[in-house]
Specification:
Layout lengths: L2 H13 L3 H13 L5 H13 L3 H13 L5 H13 L3 H14 L4 H13 L3 H13 L5 H13 L3 H14 L4 H13 L3 H13 L5 H13 L3 H14 L4 H14 L2 H13 L3 H9 L10
Helix pairs in contact: 1-2, 2-3, 3-4, 3-5, 4-5, 5-6, 5-7, 6-7, 7-8, 7-9, 8-9, 9-10, 10-11, 11-12, 12-13, 13-14, 13-15, 14-15, 15-16, 16-17
């Protein structure tokens, strides 16, 4: 079988969703001397699909070395850079993509996301604005611009962007979650609870979501409901010291002293300073019970 046949077989396997077999076939073709940039590009995409982002980046680099000047390749590489938290390289890859096709909005969206992850919200907003100017008015763009505006403390503008995103995609669960975070940050705990509930109805089961809703319930004096959410958060992540502390405080407000002390000990054992201070203050570093 020639290397061209092996390459075609790899492409067919990838189309069938048989990614590990496709990866082996691409590698076999390349090791047999098939120094084709498309082979490296496709193997890079396969690596990325399998979560092997550093391997993907190396193959994207090799495809570029072999003379490829392709916007999609640069954007694919930028995504892999983001996945290994190398946001500056992701931004540079997007710069190359934009230089090739400055009127293509997708590259601005990818770069805007990279700027957001790099904690550069002003640059992120500029890129999302450019994408919208180029008629890329998608839920993703408005959602990500909302996240950037939230980082800048522009809460009402962020809320407007979340609303636009939901108008375009009513099933976008992460928008409800982040709208809940915004409402909670601005003291609108009832609205936060509603948004967290909407996210849960869309099957977004995150420990931080349950924790945040529990805190919102506690702010409204609904301590029993708060404990239920803290229970759910700990079911998803039993090592979160903050949740044990918050649940302890809710149990204290409910008069469940024994359970509160137990949670304080769990929180302190995981390194929570306030929980440890509470136990020391009440002489509860051992097995004593608070009266």
């Amino acid at each position: 079988m020639t290397v061209q046949h092996i390459f075609k077989k790899a492409c067919a396997l990838r189309e069938e969703g048989r990614y590990l077999e496709a990866l082996d076939a691409y590698t076999q073709a390349i090791e047999a001397g098939f120094e084709d940039p498309d082979a490296y590009h496709k193997r890079a995409d396969t690596y990325a699909f399998l979560g092997l982002y550093r391997e993907a980046i190396r193959d994207y680099d090799r495809a570029i070395e072999l003379g490829v000047e392709d916007q999609e390749l640069y954007m694919d590489q930028a995504y892999s850079f983001c996945c290994v938290a190398d946001y500056e390289e992701a931004i540079r890859a997007c710069d190359r993509a934009i230089a090739l096709h400055p009127e293509e909005p997708k590259a601005y969206i990818v770069r805007g996301s990279a700027y957001g992850l790099a904690n550069k919200p002003v640059q992120a907003i500029n890129d999302f604005n450019k994408a919208i100017e180029l008629k890329a008015e998608t839920a993703e763009v408005y959602y990500n611009r909302g996240l950037a505006r939230f980082l800048l403390g522009e809460f009402e503008d962020a809320l407007k962007d979340y609303d636009r995103a939901l108008k375009l995609d009513p099933g976008f669960a992460h928008v409800y979650y982040n709208r809940g975070v915004l409402c909670q940050r601005t003291g609108r705990h009832g609205e936060a609870i509603e948004n967290y509930g909407a996210a849960l109805e869309l099957a977004l089961h995150l420990p931080e979501l349950y924790c945040n809703r529990g805190i919102a319930y506690a702010k409204l004096g609904k301590y029993q409901l708060a404990t239920h959410d803290f229970d759910a958060a700990l079911d998803l992540n039993a090592q979160n010291q903050d949740v044990y502390y918050y649940r302890a405080m809710a149990h204290l407000m409910l008069g469940n002293i024994g359970r509160a002390v137990e949670d304080m000990r769990c929180a302190a054992g995981l390194g929570h300073a306030k929980a440890d201070d509470f136990l020391q203050e009440h002489g509860l570093s051992g097995q004593e019970v608070l009266n």
